[in-house]
Design brief:
The complex is a heterodimer of chains A (246) and B (297). Chain A has 246 residues and is of the alpha+beta class. In chain A, 19% of the residues lie in helices and 30% in strands. Chain A contains 4 helices and 15 strands. Classes of the chains: A alpha+beta (246), B alpha+beta (297).
Chain lengths: 246, 297
Amino acid sequence: MSTESPLVVLPGETIDPSLIPTHKKNPLRLGPGLRHIPPSEIVPTVAGQLVVDHRKTSMWIEYNGGRYIPSKGDLIIGQIARSATDFYYVSLSPYTPNATLPHLAFESATKKTRPQLASGELVYARVSLANRHMDPELECVNSSTGEADGLGPLKDGMVFDVSLGFARRLLMAKSREEGKVEVLEALGEEGLAFETAVGRNGKVWVGSESVKTVVVVGRALRETDEKGLGVEAQRKLVKKLVREMR
Amino acid sequence: MPREAEPSANEKAFLLKALQDEQIRLDGREFDQYRPLELTFGDEYGVANVSLGKTKILAKASAEVTVPFADRPLDGIFTIATELSPMAAPHFEVNRPTETEVLLSRLLEKTVRRSGALDTESLCLVAGQKCWSVRVDVHVLSHDGNLTDAACFAVVAALRHFRKPDTSMENGVLTVYTPAEREPVPLGWLHSPFCVTWSFFGDEGETALLDADWMEEQVRVASVTISLNRHGEICQIAKLGGVPVEAVALLQCTSVALTKVKEFSTYLDDKLAEDTKRRDKGGFMAELRAENDRIVG
């Protein structure tokens, strides 16, 4: 990753051709937020920070949108709206069309042993089909291996709303360096025992034995998100909340 | 009409568990603590912007000269219009009153209009022919619970901030002066009522909270709105259905409500004084001064 100051682009701006990574053999891959207008124009469609990865010859835009648009392979936390004959209707975000989750898309589910999920319960699922023209579809099992990989219904705990950009940073593999999000690690270092599931649709589920822990984690996440705290400020916030709790 | 978004079963169960077993609210407030209340006035007279946490309400007061009602020739007209639009939350529709909207306008009506907070007789200009019609429009910009308290505060603030044009009556001729000709005058205000809403949780309504946010409102089993002014005069108490609550608990709620209303009252007075000071141009002497500004070299 380059260490220069990040380049912020607006929709429709022209991108300096020297920034576009080129490679003899690998084709350039465009990520979310960029559009290719043949023959050689690359135009951003959202406002955000332009990120370029020379190793993978790819470029994309990091942006903080308001509404979640499902895309294939995303992990999300959905709420069961109701159950139909063969699938559940799952709501990914309020006031948008429901996604469908087949009854059999769970680990070791057969026609006889279906999971019984009531309306209002939360599930951690992966988006298996998403495009502009159809309602999205979900699955709770890795279709190639047949294992759940942590997907499935979420019991107890509490779910908190966060912004989409924050959820993306939490889900990054190197969230500490690249996403600048240390809140969860800091809370763990203070000795709190909890588990989390982050949904790309802006929801974070937190489960723990102790109710106070969940409340503290929720407040830490919400304040980090709302105020845009940096790493140092996150540590201070965590210390303050844990002190108040004790 | 899109249906209201419902919180998940996990959230509801967790909220109740936190309230009843651990006695904590999700945002760390005390049970009788309001969210931070902020009030700003607009540049025009009569515009009040209130935010109670994430609930934001804008109230605008305006007045025009019109014919009084035939059965009340000596009174002016005073109306409060509330409209919840999709700006507040996506499930509200314009011109399709939901239960929330009807309840909100009823409570505001009873609290501010029926209690006689505004002296309608002072709005009369010519008996039976001309009177002021004062109208307050309440716009809910963001709905995160407890619309009633915030809306009532905004209405009272807007009315106290508002100035109506000065008038004079000579030989049967009524002259209404523009703000440039004569300074506008405040409305005839008698007392300032405020609403305090309590929400109850638990099978018998044992846990009582002040100022519930949206999530807590979805889970509550009963609520009571008490309207009173800082002298302890109660305008109305509304408990519309819900789980029955102990009478003693209700009396305690009322006395805590009085403390909160006194706080609201002082806050509003301070804000109004601050606004007057800001607008004060120094009076006659400041206008007559002929000094140039000193240029410090």
